[in-house]
């Protein structure tokens, strides 16, 4: 049985407010061997970990991440929306996440959130930080913006990338070759054993998202995926312990 990477989706987001240091730390406590998160850029150029371009859902603030400087973003409450027990949780920076995992074996999956908003220089900034923290071997960059991934592959071919997509992509291993990526980050329903097997023949791996139910996890493990992105890393950890 190959070793499946257990990616905590936005941290342990089934138990903690997503994309917070509390969620990342909890994910590791629950057995995650990887952390998946989303990267955007503040008005003054700080790399911020947050999923939505709009601040409203997770902080209650109006407007876009890109329109706030880092100091102002740090004044927002990113925890109360989930549960008052997490009141005062802050939006973290990418540096903070690297500091958390740099002495561990954790794999990072950094999703560049540059589909709706084109953050100039995001790829270069993220790559520079990955290298600064000596995380080249333990980071994979993903995005729904495949032009962005192609640029990452040109700038830093030594850093693994994964194409994010939702539905049935025809012969995705061939498409990944065009982009220069080695991983397929498909929505879980777009992953079947035959595709995983064929992709492997072409040197491509699958890391499907977002897989929260145990029967789905079992099916994907049996299919041979390389990693699973989940809100509940403890459920996956329990399965992997007996495989």
From TrEMBL:
<dbReference type="InterPro" id="IPR017946">
    <property type="entry name" value="PLC-like_Pdiesterase_TIM-brl"/>
</dbReference>
<dbReference type="GO" id="GO:0006629">
    <property type="term" value="P:lipid metabolic process"/>
</dbReference>
<feature type="domain" description="GP-PDE">
    <location>
        <begin position="4"/>
        <end position="240"/>
    </location>
</feature>
<dbReference type="InterPro" id="IPR030395">
    <property type="entry name" value="GP_PDE_dom"/>
</dbReference>
<dbReference type="Pfam" id="PF03009">
    <property type="entry name" value="GDPD"/>
</dbReference>
<dbReference type="GO" id="GO:0008081">
    <property type="term" value="F:phosphoric diester hydrolase activity"/>
</dbReference>
<protein>
    <submittedName>
        <fullName>Glycerophosphodiester phosphodiesterase</fullName>
    </submittedName>
</protein>
């Amino acid at each position: 049985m190959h070793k499946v990477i257990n990616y905590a989706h936005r941290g342990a987001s089934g138990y903690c407010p997503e994309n917070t240091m509390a969620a990342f730390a909890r994910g590791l406590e629950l057995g995650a061997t990887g952390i998946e998160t989303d990267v955007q850029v503040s008005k003054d150029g700080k790399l911020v970990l947050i999923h939505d371009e709009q601040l409203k859902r997770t902080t209650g603030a109006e407007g876009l991440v890109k329109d706030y400087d880092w100091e102002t973003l740090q004044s927002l409450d990113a925890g109360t929306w989930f549960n008052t027990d997490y009141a005062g949780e802050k939006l973290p920076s990418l540096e903070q996440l690297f500091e958390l995992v740099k002495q561990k074996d954790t794999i990072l999956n950094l999703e560049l959130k540059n589909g709706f908003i084109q953050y100039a220089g995001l790829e270069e900034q993220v790559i520079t930080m990955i290298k600064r923290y000596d995380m080249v071997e333990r980071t994979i960059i993903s995005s729904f913006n495949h032009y962005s991934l192609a640029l990452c592959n040109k700038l830093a071919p030594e850093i693994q990338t994964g194409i994010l997509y939702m539905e049935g992509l025809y012969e995705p291993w061939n498409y990944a070759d065009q982009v220069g990526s080695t991983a397929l980050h498909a929505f879980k329903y777009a992953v079947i054993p035959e595709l995983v097997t064929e992709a492997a023949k072409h040197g491509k791996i699958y890391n499907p998202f977002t897989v929260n139910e145990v029967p789905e996890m079992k099916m994907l493990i049996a299919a041979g995926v390389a990693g699973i992105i989940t809100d509940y890393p403890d459920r996956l950890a329990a399965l992997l312990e007996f495989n």
